Sequence to fold (268 residues):
Amino acid sequence: MTLIASTDRSQPLKDQVALVTGGGRGIGRASAVALAEAGADVAVADIDLEPATQTTKGILALGRRAFALGNDVGDVHEIDAMVSRVVEEFGRIDILVASAGVTRRAHIMDVTEADWDRIHRVNAKGLFFCLQRTAREMIPRRSGRIINMASIAGKGYREASNAAYAASKGAVIALTYAAAQQLAQYNINVNAICPGITRTPLSLSMVADRAREQGVTPEELEHRRIESIPLRRANEPEDIAGLVVFLASTAARNITGQAYNVDGGLMP
Fold:
């Protein structure tokens, strides 16, 4: 089945089915809501069920179908259960937004083996197996959109939270390229988004930690960060969600294997 553009331009994803991981907060939540506003029904997955449930309440209020799942995407068995549940509830998956991710602020000499394993377990391994398991559902239908959440950290941004995180997001970009090439024969598009400085709960928490370390206020540190951006504004999660909707739509049907920066001009 090929994705058909809705005749309603305000709802380009009308009656499509999306799965969003990390959908309880930040970019994942904004993406889930934006997909619903564009007409999609959305399964919202998060390791914490409560925030995922809150996201679904907003989607249901828009008149779309939605349900929440509490799944750890670092566990392959839980990924299988998650995807199976979405197919059972909605019949198929047209769109995957792999947005779940973890990090912490650390100098390269302070990154531990536990940090490395935790970060790569979710950001790289988890994303790959979400992609693979969802693609198994898309291949027989010869249709699908997969959108991976990477980061400009994966392209060498010097202010990355830590080296393990940067490596995990570099892996996401490489996986996106490889998957796009190998899934193209099934009419499955695979792209990545590389956010820059984005005002999410996780990001703001790390700003507060850094501010304490440097003996400045969070507001002063945030001002410094924004001054480094050519457009002089940080992303809101909705800035990323807008690109998610575009890449999920038929307007992007010939776009695959790309990793788009949304960073106000920080990276070339």
User: Anything to note?
Assistant: Residues 1-6 have pLDDT under 50 and may be disordered. The beta strands are 17-21, 41-46, 66-70, 95-98, 144-149, 188-195, 259-262. Residues 113-138 form the longest helix (26 residues). Helices lie at 26-37, 49-61, 76-90, 113-138, 163-183, 201-214, 218-227, 237-248.
